[in-house]
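Board notes (copied after class):
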Amino acid sequence: MERRYDVLIVGGGVVGCAIARELSRYRVRTALLDRERDVGLGTSCRNSGVLHSGINYTPGTLRARLAVEGNRRMHALCRDLRVKCRTIGKLTVAQDEEDTATLARLLEQGTANGVPGLRILWPEEMRRLQPGVEGIRALHSPSSGIVSPYALTVALAENAVTNGVHVHLGQEVLEIRPRLPEDGGGFVVRTAAGDRFIALVVVNAAGVFADRVAALAGIPGFRIYPCRGEYYVLDKRFDGVLRTLVYPAPRPRNPGLGIHLTPTVDGNILIGPSAEYVEDPGDLACTAAILRKLQEKGRGLLPDLAGADFIRSFAGIRAKQSPPEEGGTRDYIIEDRKDVKGFINLVGIESPGLTASPAIAVMVAEMVGHHLPLEEKKTFVSCREGRREFFCELSTEEKAALVAEDPEYGEVVCRCEGITRREVLDALANPLGARTLVSLKYRARVTMGRCQGGFCLPRIVRILRDEFGYAPEDYLLRGGSSPLFVGRVREDAEIRTPVPAEGVRP
């Protein structure tokens, strides 16, 4: 099948979706392609969810400017999109005199970058912000915060679709070929699904695969070095223990900012990330040695951590331009290629890519404007429908009113997270048509609690069967190569609904 657009975005991470949403303001036919069955299934769902202030980046670099500008834009964006976002500040802690010199450098460059409210704190001041923190000094950056990275990515994509952007999932790009001027210019993009896309402008926002996409367009010389970071997720028993972000002072040549504890907007705490270069950008393995290290780090900071408090582990990949022997980080590459007209190339968008995404989107839209007229729509809808809070986070009165209006709110599907049948159905009816288990997880938080799906998965299976007619082979974890079932144990087997006690809904 052939489809024609003005702009084609390759990559459905938070940056690609932010670009799609920004371009949806204008009268340009825009589409987004992603190789997965949903947006945000790469680095954008596998990170700490931190909104960085901009202290860690060299003044004058794109990373510095876009981090500060993205931080400034993020709260209004999350308000419009109904995404949880909290400003909680950050302590970057020094343990020795070498670290103290690092704090002085971070203060100087953060001030040069325009980061507001920076101060060096003594131990007593540090502990007033975060009881129990140990160190001899700390740099406080009050504009740092936290956001749900997967909720933001999904919200950006869904709002873009509301405003006319087409999202094509399961479309791995195999070929990008420039068209001759006499044929209208632009590009022909062919995908593994057998589809053919024609666009005047192509935006490469492919993250860890950005070097490969650039090469497909005839632009050699880029290389991404995948760097894996592993995490542990802690049970919500520790919700509220961390009042602010606490990071160690960064060390030279370290490919990340060090292992730390990070509170999330949904009440869990993350331990991580580690930093280890790997060959395969799809290598999301969690390793025994690193997980032991994370457990030791966690117990050092939270001494009463029990084994049952570590409810899940996961890993994400940084799209690093710097090879292992160099370490550290390089500046972002965001370029409107002169040698390949109409190709906008984004390479090496690692942390703080989440924070910078709204500012990157504005920058890329300006580049698109060099190739196409950007006329603003009067019909642009900036706000996304729905609530930011989950049903379980509402007041008793609000819950009662919703149940009276829609009894589907009265049935709890996910007991750990308190997610109702109505919330599951709403998540399944998403504008992108994504219905894998991971897609449902990132929209409704089912399977994310202490039991990791032990209670809710059979109920989700039943909903998909009864409401959408799923057969065993239709259930997917995240894509076509990850089936949940291969068939029935017995041909006459049925998924039975337990009979509840009188007056109790299952």
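Comment from the instructor: The longest strand covers residues 310-320. The chain has three domains: 2-43+150-224+330-368, 84-147+226-320, 391-474.
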